[in-house]
Write a structure and sequence with these properties.
Shape: rod-shaped
Distance between the termini: 45 Å
Low-confidence stretches: none
Strand content: under 5%
Number of helices: 3
Mean pLDDT: 78
Largest sheet: none
């Protein structure tokens, strides 16, 4: 269970790291482009208007690309988090709630423990141990004479 959770969170971290790297790259390209245009305008002042128009176009395109990549990465990260939570609920939370409910029913009202569900490796192991413990408790009560 711990490995699955770790893999899920590492996947999200890598995705966000990738989005950050793309953003840094795009913004550094914009910076380099701006510096080139400024240097060109110093060397050839006659084309300043054209260079400023080029700068606006390049910066707008770069910012659009950066924002789009960030939005996509964030949307994918949110989707992965929701998917991760969904699988955590189905694979771990619901079976644990069912084990809890079964134990509570057994301890309070002696209702037989319901172990009729399938789950992941760790939860199945826990369910089997609880069933074994309850069975041992029943056998001990049967073997111990009442006073």
């Amino acid at each position: 269970m711990r490995k699955k959770i770790t893999i899920g969170f590492l996947s999200l971290a890598l995705l966000l790291l990738f989005a950050g790297a793309v953003t840094v790259y795009e913004l550094s390209e914009l910076r380099s482009s701006t510096h080139r245009i400024i240097e060109q305008s110093i060397n050839d002042p006659g084309e300043v208007g054209q260079m400023l128009a080029d700068l606006r176009t390049r910066s707008s395109a770069t910012i659009d690309q950066t924002v789009t990549s960030c939005i996509i990465a964030t949307a994918v990260a949110v989707f992965l988090v929701l998917l991760f939570l969904f699988f955590m609920d189905i694979g771990y939370a619901k079976p644990l709630r069912k084990i809890n409910k079964g134990l509570k029913g057994y301890l309070e009202t002696k209702i037989p423990f319901d172990d009729s569900f399938d789950s992941s490796d760790d939860i199945t192991s826990l369910k089997e141990m609880v069933s074994d413990l309850i069975e041992q408790s029943r056998k001990t009560k049967i073997q111990t004479p009442s006073k």
